[in-house]
Specification:
- The structure is a single chain.
- The protein has 2 domains: 218 residues, Carbamate kinase, CATH 3.40.1160; 140 residues, VC0802-like.
- The two termini are 41 Å apart.
- The strands form 3 sheets. It has an 8-stranded mixed β-sheet with strand order 3-4-2-1-7-9-10-8, sandwiched between helices. Strands 12-13-11-14-16-15 form a 6-stranded antiparallel β-sheet.
- By secondary structure, it is an alpha/beta fold.
- It is 39% helix and 22% strand.
- The structure holds aspartic acid and magnesium ion (MG).
- The site of magnesium ion has 4 residues, from loops.
- Aspartic acid (ASP) binds next to loops.
């Protein structure tokens, strides 16, 4: 059995739902994870914001607009009156539920219940469509088996037990369907796995069921070897190691949610990135082995701030770095890149919320300078240090570009460069030219 996850755009209209139905039918008895229809979760967030602010009219307007979109989808999706009615009832009851919150107090708890409606609606619609077309599909409610523990981590044992017991009740099912993103927390309340969390749902389910493979279906044909928005002629990478995919997901390759790789990696379940619009394209396969001795891809992360702390006291001192890092920890700010010398250290952050407090505290240790509007360019591949020449090649590509920081050797899979925002496109193109066209 495989786990197939479809993102919001893959189920974003009646036609797309029909395409997905065809695709999953052809692939047999698998478990299908769906996101909300594209745009829905954003609208639900907006509705929640209005309700927090007690702007009931604003909330109602957004609710009405969203509801109209669903009614249009229903009109286009089903051919029989019976199923049009069934779907209308299901969707109306979700919208009535959303409307019921405009009356009383509104807290995070109610907000999460609203956010859950997106995936509940997309799965209800597709399930009914499959049934209308004669498929014995079974909708497994994620809220009955997806649970997180007190640390907000997936409670895998619970999920495995509940999910397998549920599936055993339907030996005749042609396929199973469930909601991505939503879950219950340790207190049994409705919760979610954070924005973009459907990938994580698929990865967790794939891991607990020891699935043959996890397929993430989106609207591009895999992870590209560079950013197609800035570089022409990028190509999908055929194969990636889990570690390489994790580096790329974090550094801006938007196709896969960064945390998603972990459960699959730990349980050694291959993840394949595929394109709903081009189902036969090979996509990208992420697994525990990968082609060695080559550079696979380049990605960039924007809005980076570099902070340099220079101090005579650092020379031959111990404990200096700990004190510096503690300041970032105090302000819950994570560090991305680090470069050190005997008399100074540079770090990068992408969250400036507490920067003025951080800078005040850092000034106790030495001279502090800040460079804003920087970009991390990350080169990913088999970069184990015994391999000769790869870092030289990457550096050579950037020979005409001012580089503020370089980080290499942190993992076997990554070398990162920090450049100015205005040099980003040139840097990405130069790297493609040198690394992939030779
Ligand atoms: N619907 C949720 C979101 O938009 C989860 C997901 O699509 O992965 O964030
Ligand atoms: Mg997504």
């Amino acid at each position: 059995m495989k786990v197939l996850k479809f993102g919001g755009t893959s189920v974003g209209s009646a036609q797309r739902m029909k395409d997905v139905a065809k695709l999953i039918n052809e692939r047999g008895r698998n478990l299908i994870v769906l996101s909300a229809m594209s745009g829905t979760t954003n609208s639900l967030v907006e509705i929640g914001d209005y309700l927090y602010k007690k702007n009931i009219d604003g909330a109602k307007e957004t609710i009405n607009l969203l509801e109209a979109k669903y009614m249009k989808t229903i009109a286009e999706l089903y051919s029989t009156k019976e199923y049009k009615e069934k779907a209308t009832d299901a969707i109306k009851s979700c919208f009535n539920y959303i409307r019921s919150f405009s009356k009383d107090i509104f807290t995070m708890f109610e907000e999460r219940e609203i956010l859950a409606q997106g995936e509940l609606m997309s799965t209800a619609l597709l399930n009914l469509y499959l049934q209308e077309t004669g498929v014995n599909s079974v909708l497994l409610p994620a809220l009955d088996f997806m649970r997180t523990d007190k640390n907000a981590e997936a409670d895998t044992q619970y999920i495995r037990e509940k999910l397998t017991a549920l599936m055993e009740q339907y030996p005749d099912a042609d396929l199973f369907l469930t909601q991505g993103y939503i879950c219950r927390n340790a207190y049994g309340e409705i919760d979610n796995l954070q924005r973009g969390g459907s990938d994580l749902t698929a990865s967790i389910i794939g891991a607990v069921l020891e699935a043959e493979e996890i397929e993430i279906w989106t609207d591009i044909d895999g992870m590209h070897n560079n950013d197609p928005r800035f570089v022409e002629g990028t190509k999908p990478v055929k194969e990636l190691h889990f570690e390489e995919a994790a580096e790329l997901a974090y550094f801006g390759a938007k196709i896969l949610h960064p945390t998603c790789v972990l459960p699959a990696k730990l349980n050694n379940i291959p993840v394949r990135l595929l394109n709903t619009m081009q189902p036969d394209a090979p996509g990208t396969l992420i697994h525990n082995t990968s082609e060695s001795h080559c550079i696979k891809a380049v990605a960039a992360k924007d809005n980076i701030t570099a902070i340099k702390i220079k101090s005579g006291r650092m020379l031959l001192a111990y404990g200096f770095l700990r004190k510096v890092f503690e300041i970032f920890e105090t302000y819950k700010t994570s560090i991305d890149m680090i470069a050190t010398s005997e008399v100074g250290v540079s770090v990068t952050i992408d969250d400036e919320r507490n920067i003025s407090s951080i800078l005040d505290d850092l000034k106790k240790f030495g001279t502090v300078t800040v460079d804003r509007d920087m970009v991390i360019i990350c080169v990913v591949g088999d970069l184990e240090w015994q391999n000769r020449g790869f870092e030289a090649k990457a550096l050579d590509a950037l020979r005409d570009i001012p580089v503020r920081m370089i980080s290499y050797g942190g993992s076997n899979y990554n070398i990162s460069f920090l450049v100015r925002k205005e040099d980003k496109v040139a840097a990405l193109n130069a790297l493609s030219e040198h690394l992939f066209k030779a």
